[in-house]
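worker-03 picked up job from queue 'complexes'. Input manifest follows; two sequence lines, order preserved.
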Amino acid sequence: MSDSHASSALAHQFEDLEQQHEAASLGMWIFLATEVMFFGGLFAGYTLYRNLFPAGFAAGSHMLNVTVGAINTGVLICSSLTMALAVRAAQTGKRSALLAFLMLTIALGLAFVIIKLTLEWRHDYLEGLAPGLNFTFAGPNAKSLELFFIFYFLMTGVHALHMVVGIGVLGVLLLQAGKGRFGPERYNAVETAGLYWHFIDIIWIFLFPLLYLIGGRY
Amino acid sequence: MSGHVVAKKLYFLIFGTLLALTALTTGVAFVDLGQWNTIVALIIACCKGTLVVLFFMHLRWSPRLMRVVLLSALLWLAILISLTTTDFFSRDWIPIPQGWEESSLLRPPGLPEHFLHRR
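worker-03 finished. Artifact:
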């Protein structure tokens, strides 16, 4: 490595740590912009079909469990807090706090996916509300209700897939943190993983009302 | 050291606000506001998203370049949704004479009548 730099955390193509930090964050922000487009297609399709078939979408939304959805929103917000605190622990060089917060974030992320899988998807499948696998609903608006559930499974499925990827990334960070790789000068990996994690949280913040709270619960 | 270290207190404040807004949006869904239910839910979701972006994702302390990236993503999202919907919902505003028998089209049961005019 270049010997003109005082810090070994600094890659030789960067002027200083500040610039290196900004480059890492900017890269993640640009990736997240492409993710906005990726989820944007689903949200646009949802908007269109919900306006075409409002009754079926409202009826489908009524069949989802609001309590479980709200609890899962809380779990995800908690995981965002622990992630933010993990980044802070890395910035301030507190290794044991970093390890603890990373483990907490992973645990909360796993809790979200497990709740989704066991209390919701499995239940929907057994109730005959899983298009393509087991769809037996035959009441009014059955076709458009099926369309709602296609959007539901696709959007929550892709979201959960992002969660699983995020959990994997955090697992790698946890291993690296255990080896003492991170510190006040070297925490960009934790920061960018945090950006990704918070982004998944934001996607759910929009999915929750659009899937669970439409059509009137009153 | 690079990057801004945020006070722990602020993180907990944002966390509490996010939980409160989650409770609020869930509660409002049980009140009949007609068309406004969706609008209120989306406004609350936007507020929550803004809080996460500004504080948890540190955009408040980030260089302007990152705000430009986020704003351009949102701009493109707005184009995607607004152009798709305006096209779709304005298609039958101007009637187009059709040279063939409309009844010959096979219409799947349950599909709304106006669906046929979209071409």
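worker-03 released lock.
The first helix of chain B runs from residue 8 to 28.
The CA atoms of residues 3 and 61 of chain B lie 8 Å apart.
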